[in-house]
Model the fold of this input.
Amino acid sequence: MKDYKLWTMLKKEIHNSNLRPLGGKEKEVWICNLGENIGFEEDGKGNNFTRPVLILRTFNKNFCYIVPLSTTEKRGKYYYPFDSKTGKNSVALLSQSKSIDTMRLSRKVGYVHEEDFKEIKLKIKEILF
Done:
């Protein structure tokens, strides 16, 4: 059962805090408050509705484009498995990529090697266009 009430309260706190992380650069892996979403959209986990994300593009200090990550092994054209240097193997959930406000970013936990980063960007272009 999804807890939209708890997520709404947390979302208000995040928005009203106006806190932004220092950083949030391309190729970095961050813990992100993704929230409680609808249908097959990727949710955050736990009380803070968080999950790791890879920053694909920073537009400015307030806005970036991310792809959610999972540690669950998944295969197919909408997934890209890689070593994120967080100590765990990761899978980029390519079809779940989206723009977010950097206020959702909580803390940096790692980075992605240049080769994997380029491949992830290429695969997202392939599935979107």
Q: What stands out?
A: Strands lie at 28-33, 50-60, 63-70, 79-83, 89-93, 98-101, 105-111. Residues 35 and 49 are 5 Å apart (CA to CA). The two ends are 35 Å apart (CA to CA).
